[in-house]
Amino acid sequence: xxxxxxxxxxxxxxxxxxxxxxxxxxxxxxxxxxxxxxxxxxxxxxxxxxxxxxxxxxxxxxxxxxxxxxxxxxxxxxxxxxxxxxxxxxxxxxxxxxxxxxxxxxxxxxxxxxxxxxxxxxxxxxxxxxxxxxxxxxxxxxxxxxxxxxxxxxxxxxxxxxxxxxxxxxxxxxxxxxxxxxxxxxxxxxxxxxxxxxxxxxxxxxxxxxxxxxxxxxxxxxxxxxxxxxxxxxxxxxxxxxxxxxxxxxxxxxxxxxxxxxxxxxxxxxxxxxxxxxxxxxxxxxxxxxxxxxxxxxxxxxxxxxxxxxxxxxxxxxxxxxxxxxxxxxxxxxxxxxxxxxxxxxxxxxxxxxxxxxxxxxxxxxxxxxxxxxxxxxxxxxxxxxxxxxxxxxxxxxxxxxxxxxxxxxxxxxxxxxxxxxxxxxxxxxxxxxxxxxxxxxxxxxxxx
Length: 449
Fold this sequence. Notes:
With about 450 residues, this protein is of the alpha/beta class. It has 2 domains: about 5-60 and about 330-435, Aspartate Aminotransferase, domain 1 (Alpha-Beta Complex); about 70-330, Aspartate Aminotransferase, domain 2. It is built from 13 helices and 17 strands. The chain has a 7-stranded mixed β-sheet with strand order 4-12-11-10-7-5-6, with helices on both faces. Strands 1-2-3-15 form a 4-stranded mixed β-sheet. It has a 4-stranded antiparallel β-sheet with strand order 13-14-17-16, covered by helices on one side. Helix 4 runs parallel beside helix 10 (about 315-330) and helix 12 (about 380-395) crosses helix 13 (about 415-435).
């Protein structure tokens, strides 16, 4: 039988010789060649419905014509000049737009970086500079990046600690309130009380409130398993920061820009953060991130505390301006919300049929499907998850996992209902074969983290 992944297999062997292993989380021997809309093609010419969106970096779709045209036009005008010395007009245009579309009617300022990691590094810097305090609090299960600062804020993988300690000091971790861990017969209020108690115990024993400079949270954790913070918990956390002069920051790098059925995931809570970070789909995958914060906080540091030679690159900014226009003009917030409800219904029907599905968590065109060995024990089923995503890849649907056992669902927000239905037909067949014991797939390498 002809190997339809022949070129990908061959190139992966070469890549293993020339590319450092820490730079890629392994899922498949897959080499991407091109993409358009919600479809991507590998180097062998195989076609896939993309349910990953380059880790939520292509919310407006692959090769969006408006974004491509903006990139071409700007490339013919100016590729780059260091914005750390001189502004370009697009810095002003995109900054004004971000100020307009982020929550809060207070005075704000914007700062550009090259990556989400660099943007989250800035949260540590600004929190400490503005308050004069040291401790920054993050959450277990969080993923904020892999530079030393953002890695220190993250608590999702031991591979972000091994061989690299010591990390940035004075960062502490709160246990994330994962509702999937709610006890039987425990109400949501009782659950929130229990998890808030974990936090207050920390304040009584080893974290002085007066030393806390800032708190960073993903309102919906993505790599942690697509977990939405309970509303009551978020309200308590925000009020705690208001009473104690603590900078409240939200990481919207994965979940922002219409991904969760709102422009920003914090919009699910009607809370106005002091600082918001965004990247990934901000420029349709081009290397651009932004920190948007209260003016008095953003004024607390002087140059060159967070200056980068290529931050605010005009081609990236042109892509960003066009991307935001597409999100607004094509009503992608509403589209994400409506198609997300449709997808949630589809996944819940699969859950009714297949006991391997322990939980369905969908927020917009975005979410996680938790695979378990039993619903009673909630023990993760890593093997089934690996087999299923491999089957999907071999049958034209690209989906990966987070946390090893949670299917990651993040298609481009422009995906057609036909493409969505086609992918669900393949997913359903995969679950049917899995339950029947007919998914005879050997996984000879570790998949995911």
